Amino acid sequence: MVHTHKHWVSIFMGLILGIVSIPPVLNQLGITSINLPTFITTFSIRVMYILLCIGALYLLIDSSHETGTLQALSIIIGLIVGLFSLVQILAMFGVINIAVTAISFTILYFVLAIISILLFIGGFVYH
Question: Of the candidates 12, 8, 38, which has an alpha carbon nearest to the alpha carbon of residue 23?
Fold first, then answer.
């Protein structure tokens, strides 16, 4: 049972990020022909990395209320995706001189979908 407002935020963020990321992934895999409007699927790369960074950060915060495998998975994915997206954001703004440019939108949507699923599941875990 969901007991605090923090869990409602996790569920809401998981749903919003899932709505943005899961349909494009399913469309790319050929599972469904349903896709989002083009103004959503053609986000700039900066917006995608900012969404990834915010999602990863909240996943790390939310993992403090989880236990076991879900907590470990949330921490590992949150750290990797958070650090990677933060490096990309800093490189885009010229703060650092390191950047990976060969990442496609499909991979970014897939990672965002994983984060959204973990946030949604984490919203129902209360310890």
Answer: 38
What are residue 65's phi and psi, to 5 degrees? -100, 5
pLDDT tens track for 65-97: 777 888 888 888 889 888 888 888 888 888 888
Please give the model's pTM, rounded to 2 decimal places.
0.74
Angle at CA of residue 19, ends 18 and 25, nearest 5° = 70
DSSP state of 64: G
Name residue 37's amino acid.
P
Sign of the C-alpha dihedral, residues 42, 113, 110, 99? positive
17 lies in which domain range? Answer: 5-123
**Structural domains counted in the chain:** 1
